Amino acid sequence: MRYSLLFTPRLIAAGVMLAVAWNISALTLEQARTMAREHYPLVKDYNLIALTEQYTVENASKAWLPQVAASLQGYWQSAVASYPEALTQMLEQTGLTVRGLGKWQYKAGVDISQTIWDGGRIRASQELARAQAAESLASDDVELYQVESRVDDLFFGILLLEQQQQAITASLHLLEANFAQVNTLLANGAAMQSDADAIEAELVATQQQQESVEVTTVAYRAILALYTNAPADVALEAPSFEGDTPLTTDFTHRPEWRLFNARSRSIDAQLKQLKASTMPTLGAWAQGGWGYPGLNFMEAMMSRSPKWSATIGLTLSWDIASLYTRSGRRKNLETARQRIDVSRDVFSFNSDLQATNQRHEIERLRRISASDSRIVELRQRVREASEVKLREGIINPTDLLLRITDEKNARISANSHHIELLRAIAALRLLYNQ
User: Fold this and answer.
1) Residue closest to 145 by CA, chosen among 364, 365, 347, 339
2) Own/partner long-range contacts of 192-198 (Cβ < 8 Å, ≥24 apart)
3) pLDDT at residue 3 is higher than 50
4) Which of 323, 237, 240 is nearest to 278 (CA)?
5) What angle do CA 318, 324, 325 make, to 5 degrees?
6) Rounded to an integer, what distance in angstroms lies between the CA atom of residue 287 and that of residue 312?
7) pLDDT tens by residue, 153-210
8) What is the structure's pLDDT at 178?
9) Separation between Cα atoms, residue 87 and residue 81, nearest integer Å
10) Are strands 281-292 and 307-317 parallel, antiparallel or unpaired?
11) Over the stretch 61-119, which tens digit does the pLDDT of each residue have?
């Protein structure tokens, strides 16, 4: 997989989304997930991984280029090659002066080497770099997937708290209205002070409950704002989830599954590199230089003039010692692959358990939610009848308080079951990465 485009269309779209985040009217669950992924600091690692892969592959391909080295050296030797003295005297009698090699020697040269065949080492190193980059990207995807799960918890937690706040607010209105009614009865002598005190105590306790929910909601919203970079007071739009829950049992779309596959491909690349490391290499080389002495030592003994020289050749090398550990290294890699397979099986097993449990939880919440509206309706009717009885003096305010509390709890339970059902469906969809 290549990553030559560092700024993908998805990143550009996400950047636009973040740019207008402060102007959105309502935040959906999918928007919250996407904004959290793109705002999370780890997203910067994607470009860094792509750049690392690009540089590594490019550096490996440069091994095919000729390798050039220039050198300049000068040195003095305490002893040099020379003719025997008797031979020197004989040559001098013929008019030839043989001085022998000079002890001061120097040379400027250029060495060039070219790989002809490397046994597949360069290609194997490039494939390994790409496989390792894909593995790193998949690992980042797994961590970002966990961020989506945390965003879901915050999103539905806020929805649940807001539903509770609505039910508590409705209960406060009822308590305030009935508190005024009891005060009227108290003024007319139709109620006792303890009756008014009982309703007032419940009113204050309900106000405390409302304040607690408000503080918790503010905290949840502040954390969600840190994740998404959206305004903390943005309205949240509850998902509808049309249709049934997912029927698939396929977890191959999960980032963990892609990570397992990436690790397996990395093992394949390492095996190829292991095979290439035990192959011989063939190369050509050339040396050219200018200095003293040249390649012709006989001429250098008679003349101290620098000379040009050139040498070319082929090199075949084979590191036989690498064959000694090849089998052991291959077994280690195969064992690592088996461990990846075990991890994949464990992941599938645990995911199946989670999915089964989640499906049963969805079914339970659906059955409960089916009768919630009827319970709320009945509790409301009982409370309204109790208010009439209180005005007629048939019951005391304590009985009415119980009816108001029952209605409030019924509304909170109904709203909670609805949000919990949405959360369970979202969790199942996220479990399949849908």
Assistant:
1) 347
2) 195/396, 195/397, 195/398, 196/397, 198/397, 198/398, 198/401
3) no
4) 323
5) 110
6) 6
7) 999 999 999 988 988 888 888 888 888 888 887 887 777 888 788 888 888 998 999 9
8) 81
9) 14
10) antiparallel
11) 888 888 888 999 888 888 777 777 777 777 667 766 677 777 888 899 899 988 888 88
Q: Which two tokens stand for residue 267?
A: 């093992």
Q: Which residues pair with 310 in a beta bridge?
A: 288
DSSP secondary structure, 129-143, as one string: HHHHHHHHHHHHHHH
| Helix/strand/coil for 103 | coil
At 104, phi and psi to the nearest 5?
A: -90, 125
Which residue in the block uniquely carries the two structure tokens 């108001």?
Answer: 404
For the beta carbon of residue 18, count every other beta carbon within 10 angstroms: 16
- Entry pTM: 0.76
pLDDT-based confidence at 340, cuts 50/70/90?
A: very high
Estimate the crossing angle of helix 29-39 against helix 121-187, to 10 degrees: 130
Task: Determine the Cα–Cα distance for residues 10 and 167; give it in Å rounded to an integer.
Answer: 40
Yes or no: say if 206 and 173 are a contact pair by the CB < 8 Å rule. Answer: no
Bridge-based pairing of strands 235-236 and 26-27 is: parallel
**Helix or strand (DSSP H, E) at 99:** none
Q: Would you state the pLDDT for residue 339? A: 94
Three-class DSSP category at 33: helix
For the CA atoms of the chain, what is the radius of gyration?
42
Nearest to 132, CA basis, from 273, 241, 227, 298: 273
Four-point Cα dihedral 386, 388, 392, 395, nearest 10: 0
Q: Count the neighbouring beta carbons within 10 Å of the beta carbon of residue 340.
A: 18
Q: Which of 238, 152, 162, 157 is nearest to 411 (CA)?
A: 162
